[in-house]
UniProtKB/TrEMBL annotation:
PANTHER family, A to Z: CYSTATHIONINE BETA-SYNTHASE
Record keywords, A-Z: Pyridoxal phosphate
Native organism taxonomy: Bacteria, Pseudomonadati, Pseudomonadota, Gammaproteobacteria, Enterobacterales
Protein name: Cysteine synthase B
Domain Tryptophan synthase beta chain-like PALP per the UniProt entry, residue ranges: 3-288
Amino acid sequence: MNILDHMGNTPIVEIKNIYNQKFGRVWVKLEEFNPGGSIKSRVGLKMINDAEEAGLLSNGSRLIEPTGGNTGIGLALASAIKGYKLTLVIPDNFSEEKVNTLKRYGVDILRSDHRTGPGSHIRMVHDILKEESQYIFLDQFSNISNPNSHYLFTGNEIIIQMKNNISAFICGVGSGGTIAGVGRRLKELNAEIKIIGVQPNGCDIKNGIFTPHKIEAIAVGIIPPFIDFDQIDHFIDVDIEEVQELRDYLTRKESIFIGISSGANILAAMKLSKQFKNTENIVTVAPDSGRSYI
């Protein structure tokens, strides 16, 4: 048994509704309790396991991936244990704490110029692949292992923890794996469960409109191919200042120190709660903790 055997089964907690207790109840699945400290550890491990089963990897294979950090840590965990080399391309405006953590795992880091717009790291990887053939690109943005990790595990965990009593699931859309996988699993449980996306103000992910923003890991400049927008009932927009205020509040009042995209998810869940009664449950995820953003 090693650290990878302890992936998943993260806790879910109720957050006091900041608007009014008469509105829907808000529950948050704390993914910082995964090895590697985020929800993306599930994705990194699933992509590598599936690539191994498909015969795509051998000892010493070199992987490359565009990532803001969390998927990279998941890939780094699995690569270190399984004997693969890993190069990550990260926008140069992303958290230095995450970059320094990745270097500790022995990962090679390349930085893309965020001033070229959302998705700079994705474009840089594609440019590298045109010139160099040594890399294996698992591509979290098109790899079905990404949503499958949430369909098979995260979604089922939520169903068990909530005892089938779920009115809505809401989360940000970056690679799209969480909302696609969890959403599909919950719709199988009950087609009446609402699936809601979260995006920064000024972005319209469904229509491919991305504007510069400061909420890492969502609205990253692509429309994920495995997202079924017919499955998403609607999107809620959030503002970075409100997100930061809520993060501070949750740390002081709930002793829950969450990351930026986690704050976006919870803020959107609170806004959504106004459409529900206090007998109805709204579930979201906190992809990581705030320790990576100090």
